[in-house]
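thought: fold this chain, then report.
action: predict
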Amino acid sequence: MKQVLWLMVILSLVSFFGFGFLVGRRTVRPSVPDTLVVTDTMYLPGPVITKEIPVPVPADVDTAAILASFHTQRIYSDSLVSTPEVQVVVVDTVYKNQLLGRQVSWRVSTPMRNRAFSIGATVAPQGIYMSVGYRAHRWSFSSGYDVYNKAVMVSAHYDIFKW
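observation:
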């Protein structure tokens, strides 16, 4: 049994060290990047003019009007979305053929709901009232049950002021 154990130890040491001698040592190669990035500026020559076509200018040109139009600040307003609930407006300011500024404004409003169902409870010294109600426009109707006095109640309300 001891001999088998020694034989296994010797074989594993020979295979461990002998395998390294047979295959050889591995060398680590430096990795080469896949992408080479070079930052530089390249100047290309402009296009060559092959033909010039003169365009006649009208004789009655008002240079002052052209310059006044060029130096006029213009404000353009464009409504992108216009619905009762959502409104989006873009205001652009243009001066000397350049966009000076842009403003975007929006308004989102939720429509007023005129109908509703309600459920509630009222606790008072005289009793506990459980009620179910319905509201349409300015009218509110409700009916309920008084738990303490064991009685049915019905009520109607009209809204005088809304704010």
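thought: worth noting. Strands lie at 74-82, 86-95, 98-108, 115-124, 127-136, 139-146, 151-158.
final: tokens above.
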